[in-house]
């Protein structure tokens, strides 16, 4: 006889990582997003550890690839189709919150941070160039496309 076992697939939570975690002032940092739901409709990024429209950096609609900047947009942020957010020429440490809306109107939120150090306190810390960060994003997008 055969024993059949079936279980519901577990849903992975949206996560983010700072690449690099510690960045030298004036360099670039990427908040790299993982496990975005397949039915995601769009993203909203906020400065701080909560969703607050007064601190919205950018909103992105996946189907149209249109982004709308918010009150906290500085002109140094770039959002990518996978939800990742690039900060160029960073100046201060901070928390950032990603809000993902899905087709069934469920919301997922994740908050992360990066730390900015003055070059005199960090020394010659390795950091990623904008080209390296774009390469990471393209690699992640290619990996997602294969799934």
Automatic annotation (TrEMBL):
Domain of life, per lineage: Eukaryota
Keyword Calcium set for record: no
GO MF entries: protein tyrosine kinase binding
Pfam families, sorted: V-set (PF07686)
Record key words, sorted: Glycoprotein, Immunoglobulin domain, Signal
GO biological process: regulation of immune system process; signal transduction
Chain ranges of the Immunoglobulin V-set domain: 19-116
Cited InterPro entries: CEA_cell_adhesion, Ig-like_dom_sf, Ig-like_fold, Ig_V-set
Cellular component GO terms, alphabetical: cell surface; plasma membrane
Family classification: Belongs to the immunoglobulin superfamily. CEA family.
The protein's name in its UniProt record: Immunoglobulin V-set domain-containing protein
Organism: Propithecus coquereli
